[in-house]
Amino acid sequence: MQRKATLCLLQLTLEKEQQQWETWMTKDYLKFTEKEFITANNRDQTIKWITKLAKSFCLGADVVASAALMVDCVLTKVKVPLKCLNCIALSCLYTAGKVLEDAEFMPYSSELIKAARCSYSVQDLTLTERTLVNLLDWDLTPVTLYTFLELLLVITFSPSSSCKALMAQFQPALDAVNANHSLMTTYRPSTLSIAMYALFLEQRSKNMTTGVNILLQFMQIPYDKYASCRDSLVKMLIVNEVLHADGLLM
């Protein structure tokens, strides 16, 4: 029963991803080459920065994944000067945390600013957050790589309670992908998730490829797109020392 319900949820998530991808993920927000605007490296370094900040407060990997996509969404809708990028990213992290984390574990905005060693005030962060939620049309739960990975694990290793420990094994790879503009704008979260999921399954058994093929069909992901994504993902994870050259996760 749980597996059937999760498959239904996966289908709904794919539909939301389609809308999300068409609305803003296909836009080339880094077309501005002037020095005062954002480059891919600026974006990636900023995501690494909020990832470290999130870990210092023990915020979940789902919070970082959501914040990274919020940053990308904002960058597709407005021209952001480089000097404002950190404030926007911090606001995205704070907003994602308030939505996804239990209130008792979420730091106050003043604590976040202090830990980030920023010159922004609480008022600056609040004003940025108001602008952010309007740019996001109040959709504060974007579909992320984390979203799909969690669903795929529940389908394969139900009950869901046993999947929390498994998700922790993905965090280094998740962090690396979130901070890679090229992968995030070339492949949808669903495609990245099935590629990462397949790598994980291979660590457990070489006989689980049939399950991957069935999911590819269900998710309507062309095999050549999956293969291309997987190759790119493996290369990136090796460069970032998350994956050994022999294909084993570190």
From TrEMBL:
The keyword Nucleotide-binding does not apply. The keyword Ribosomal protein does not apply. Residues 48-134 form the Cyclin-like domain. Keywords: Cyclin. Pfam families: Cyclin_N. It comes from the Eukaryota. InterPro entries: Cyclin, Cyclin-like_dom, Cyclin-like_sf, Cyclin_N. Belongs to the cyclin family. This is Cyclin domain protein.
